[in-house]
Write a structure and sequence with these properties.
The complex is a heterodimer of chains A (449) and B (213). Chain A is built from 13 helices and five strands. Chain A is α+β, with helices and mostly antiparallel strands and 449 residues long. In chain A, strands 1, 2, 3, 4 and 5 form a five-stranded antiparallel beta sheet that branches. Chain B has a seven-stranded mixed beta sheet, with helices on both faces. Chain B has a single domain, classed as Rossmann fold, CATH 3.40.50. Helices cover 31% and strands 19% of the residues of chain B. The chains are: A alpha+beta (449), B alpha/beta (213). The interface between A and B is medium-sized, with 20 and 31 residues.
Chain lengths: 449, 213
């Protein structure tokens, strides 16, 4: 193609060229405004886990990273991280979606340092977003590292709840049995029953021994009032002045009678009267004695004997009552002992089950503690570390007017020339000397247009 | 210097090199409106400016425009084989005449002979050949045929018809003259000729007084 033909084509298609270049000019100003972007970069260091460590394996070393460094770019651009960053920066939903297309992270080649770049029209937001991404990637990697223990911890906690429920059920069963018979469910209940039974039996034997003494004492004390009755009567009579004076009169009269009888014969005229008087006085004395001795309570000795008898009877009655109580307790204990022989097996089974449950609960607790400790260890050791925070945002290459202008000029000039030639090639009108000569088979002499 | 005038001069030189005076040059086209009048008038004036006694014959009865293109009053159609009845166009050595209808049978030779006799160069503004038998007759009788083609229009069957018609007969197609304008175009007033005629016209073609109306 000659230059003339080239320039002729452009001249003929000047409108196409002008339109394309005008569009290019408008695109320049439009893009100059829209592509004025800034890029901020933060760098994180991610240590690769050992090759033998399977991801999300709870049994592996908790200090190893859960996310491979080559997976970090995908993780950074994931919706989870982007939404968290959007939440951190208080972005709207649309801005968050836009942010997803503005972040880029390069996978590791030979280095474990992974740059996170955010391109935005606002340099401050680009810096904030880059730092937020680096922060969130730390957080989420820590969460991923600890999440492998989360499931185990949840499972262990669930098992512990189940165990607690089972133990509660066993306790409720034991409580029910205990309500029915406290001795059976008490710890070492049979031994306690036996001990108490033996003690009670000893106490009953001692009581029986004491009761025999009390019984003897009571028997003796029961005889004492009869024994002291005569003494008491004499004591009563002797303390009665009427009886004493009457008895003294009776003695005198009887002595006189006896003197009379000794000195006189039965025909002595006074003898009958004396005899009658003595008889009367004797009768009176007898009546008085009978009357006075009928009231033995007046005798202190008799009263003391009665009191002793009552005391002995009371002690004996108390002994018998205690003995009855002991017999009742012994009977009760014997009954419990007999009952423990029948229901003791079930209680023992419950206790064995509870002990087994306690041991299983303790083991689960140990595992839970270990898992939580591992999770804490994994959380405390950050697999990804921010080694370079974004502090400045650099303008993007195409946000520089000269670069953008040069690029667009080249692009649209090429487009204009291409379109001009395409349009010209598709134009079947008689526009050029060549097409006219080809049509008529004769030369064009000159152009007088 | 006006490039348009220069183009007509170039055209005149190229025509003159192929058809020496006295010559009859027919300017026709495949379609009406391709600019035959414009080319014919420009060429005629270019010849006249070099001192050639030139006749511009309007033979396009359906679309007369010579007078308009030269800024003249309408040209009466009085040209016949008996008398050309040419009138001066106001430009040195340029005469104009109009042929309303085709010459009667057997008079074409007389007509062309008269043209050759009285003028060094006769430029005929003919109608489109596919649409006018007169134009075809004139083409056959001429020394050269120039075809005006308006650039920008699409090629059509008329172009093929033109080629077929001139190919069948003994027509010397000298070349193509592309034009651009659609519609009437008026030539600029003639300026003082700047070019010295390359060939001095023969004495017998010297202008003669009293020729024409």
């Amino acid at each position: 193609m000659t230059f003339d033909r080239f320039s002729g084509t452009l001249r003929r298609q000047w409108l196409v060229v002008a339109i394309v270049l005008a569009i290019g000019l408008m695109a320049y100003f439009l893009l100059l405004e829209r592509m004025r972007t800034y890029t901020a970069t933060a760098s994180i260091l991610s240590v690769a886990p050992s090759q033998n460590a399977a991801a999300l394996d709870p049994q592996k070393d908790p200090t190893t990273a859960a996310v491979l460094p080559q997976d970090l770019p995908s993780l950074i651009a994931s919706s989870t991280v982007v939404q968290r960053v959007g939440r951190d920066l208080h972005l709207s939903m649309d801005q968050t979606f836009t942010l997803a297309g503005e972040v880029k992270a390069r996978g590791p080649s030979s280095s474990n340092v992974i740059p996170i770049s955010v391109t935005d029209r606002n340099p401050r937001r680009a810096i904030a977003a880059a730092n937020a991404f680096s922060f969130e990637i730390q957080v989420i990697e820590r969460e991923i590292a600890t999440s492998r223990y989360g499931t185990l911890i949840q499972d262990l906690q669930s098992q512990l709840r189940t165990r607690r429920d089972a133990l509660a059920q066993i306790d409720s069963k034991l409580a029910a049995v205990s309500a029915q018979d406290p001795y059976i469910t008490a710890d070492a209940g049979t031994t306690a029953i036996n001990t108490q039974l033996v003690t009670t039996l000893r106490q009953r034997d001692a009581l029986r021994a004491a009761m025999q003494g009390d019984a003897a004492a009571a028997q003796f004390a029961a005889q004492r009032p009869e024994l002291t009755r005569a003494l008491a009567s004499r004591e009563i009579i002797e303390k009665n002045p009427t009886f004493n004076s009457l008895r003294e009169q009776y003695g005198k009269d009887l002595a006189q009678l006896n003197v009379a009888r000794a000195g006189y014969t039965d025909q002595f005229p006074g003898l009958a009267g004396q005899t009658e008087q003595v008889g009367r006085e004797g009768q009176m004395l007898s009546n008085l004695q009978n009357r006075e001795t009928a009231q033995l309570a007046k005798s202190e000795s008799y009263v003391a004997a009665l009191l002793d008898k009552n005391k002995a009877d009371a002690a004996y009655a108390s002994d018998r009552a205690q003995l009855a109580t002991f017999d009742a307790v012994i009977g009760d204990l014997t009954q419990h002992l007999d009952a423990s022989r029948s229901s003791g097996l079930a209680v023992a089974a419950l206790r064995r089950e509870r002990e087994a449950g306690d041991q299983a609960y303790a083991r689960l607790s140990d595992r839970l503690a270990n898992a939580m400790a591992d999770r804490s260890q994994a959380a405390s050791i950050a697999p990804a570390v921010v080694i370079d925070r974004a502090t400045s945002a650099n303008p993007a290459l195409f946000s520089q007017p000269r670069v953008l202008g040069a690029a667009l000029a080249i692009a649209f000039l090429w487009l204009a020339i291409t379109l001009a030639f395409l349009v010209d090639a598709s134009d079947k009108r008689l526009r050029t000397r060549t097409t006219i000569e080809e049509l008529y088979g004769s030369p064009v002499l000159t152009d007088v247009g | 210097m006006d490039s348009l005038e220069e183009n007509f001069r170039i055209l005149r030189i190229r025509v003159e090199s192929q058809a020496a005076p006295p010559a009859i040059v027919v300017v026709s086209a495949a379609m009406s409106g391709d600019g035959t009048t414009y080319v014919a008038a420009g060429l005629a004036r270019a010849f006249a400016e070099t001192g050639h006694r030139t006749l511009l014959l309007e033979a396009n009865a359906g679309r007369p425009g010579v007078a308009e293109s030269l800024g003249m009053r309408p040209i009466p159609s009085t040209c016949t084989a008996v008398g050309l009845h040419a009138r001066h166009a106001g430009v040195s050595d340029l005469w104009v005449a109009a042929l309303r209808e085709g010459p009667a049978d057997g008079t074409m030779h007389d007509l062309t002979a008269r043209m050759r006799k009285e003028f060094a160069v006769t430029v005929i503004d003919a109608a489109a050949i596919p649409a006018s038998s007169t134009a075809l007759q004139l083409a056959h009788a001429s020394d050269a045929l120039l075809v005006a083609v308006r650039t920008g229009r699409r090629a059509c069957s008329a172009d093929q018809e033109l080629l077929r018609l001139i190919g069948d007969g003994d027509v010397r197609l000298l070349g193509i003259v592309p034009t651009k304008a659609r519609g009437r175009r008026v030539l600029q007033p003639a300026s003082t000729p700047q070019l010295v005629p390359e060939v001095e016209p023969p004495a017998r073609f010297a202008p003669r007084a009293g020729v024409g109306s």
